Amino acid sequence: MLLNPQYIADHNQLRSDSHRSKLSYWANEVEKAEFVIQKLIDFQIAIPSWALGTGGTRFGRFSGGGEPRSLEEKIDDVGLLHALNRSSGAISLHIPWDIPKDVAAIRQQAGSHGLAFDAVNSNTFQDQSDQPLSYKFGSLQHVDKAVRQQAIDHNIEVIRHGEALGSQALTVWLSDGSCFPGQLNFRKAFERTLESLHEIYAALPPDSDTARWKMFVEYKAFEPNFYSMTVGDWGSSFLYASKLGPKAYTLVDLGHHLPNANIEQIVAILLQEGKLGGFHFNDSKYGDDDLTAGSIKPYQLFLIFNELVDGMDAHGMNHATDLGWMIDASHNVKDPLEDLLQSVEAIQIAYAQALLVDRVALEEAREANDVVQAQELLQDVFRSDVRPLVAEARRRAGGALDPLALFRQLNVRDSLIRERGAKTVATGL
Ligand code: RM4
Ligand code: MN
Ligand code: MN
């Protein structure tokens, strides 16, 4: 479904006065506001191809209707999000859920929506029907070399799909591990995994004028293996990435930590070591809940962005391009597109707030051990309403002042159901 730009223009026109009055709060700080707006315009967050349908749990899946039936329809959905918010300018594909049949046509279609292809993701956590060997006992860690080879070959195939699409990163998330004490020789599992990752790393395309490929090693503390995960924490991921070489980085998925882990500190250290590669944004109350970013712990999201901005600036990094910004979510009860709009907005809010932190004053407070002042500086920004800045960035980039409201007003989901049917099921989570 293509969005008629006139709808956006009308929507913005109608809201213009109320938007201007909210924005006027920032009139005394025009310089800061302009800086933030520009940064927001440049900042794009990739949408995962596997989160465009209604997710489920192992108990059930309740389809919301109008789910994309093909990669083409998934790209259309992300195109729609991007048309509304001008901040979802990329899609991250999961192979084999989303193998392009006609690469040129897919690239052309994505390009027509202004979409790029972010990291491609391999899948060795499920068995495919045409796959000779099973991953029941792991993939890259497997005791049998033939299984490892099958998983290595799959990852290399994913890189090749990514190359064809113009992607520049491979994300490897392994469900490998063990469910019971004694099941796995931890040392050997680590070594086998490292050896397998080396083979995949060696298949990364060489740097060129247009591409500098990276490999992201994603970690997760638990699930589906409940006793040990072979890439279970940022320490193991960092170790793999360090041993692999300069193109390998750690990917932080917010939901993959043990409860109360200090993610902002993890991020700070990884950035300092030049080994933070990318993000999977989501939120959680209990585990890998894959809820809307910022829906449970918005302060944590802000604190993470505070470290990101601080660390990236310290290293002269480009906020928009030097890390992979991706959402990884699953929607059990919401309209996935509405949820993704909410996630993008929450990420933008946290980013905008982090940009507003007075870093000079914060450092002074720290040097003076003025704990109260340091906390005040952060909380003051966190409690300020930057939503008008986010809306203004969207407006200037050609998006809607209130994407969610417009999505609802246009009855987008109803149109999708009419177009695709009420009982469609997207591949993915
Ligand atoms: C995992 C992990 C990966 C994603 C899969 C679908 O929990 O977060 O990033 O590839 O889900
Ligand atoms: Mn993830
Ligand atoms: Mn996950």
Automatic annotation (TrEMBL):
<dbReference type="GO" id="GO:0016853">
    <property type="term" value="F:isomerase activity"/>
</dbReference>
<protein>
    <submittedName>
        <fullName>Sugar isomerase</fullName>
    </submittedName>
</protein>
<dbReference type="InterPro" id="IPR050337">
    <property type="entry name" value="L-rhamnose_isomerase"/>
</dbReference>
<keyword id="KW-0464">Manganese</keyword>
<keyword id="KW-0479">Metal-binding</keyword>
<dbReference type="InterPro" id="IPR036237">
    <property type="entry name" value="Xyl_isomerase-like_sf"/>
</dbReference>
<keyword id="KW-0413">Isomerase</keyword>
<dbReference type="GO" id="GO:0046872">
    <property type="term" value="F:metal ion binding"/>
</dbReference>
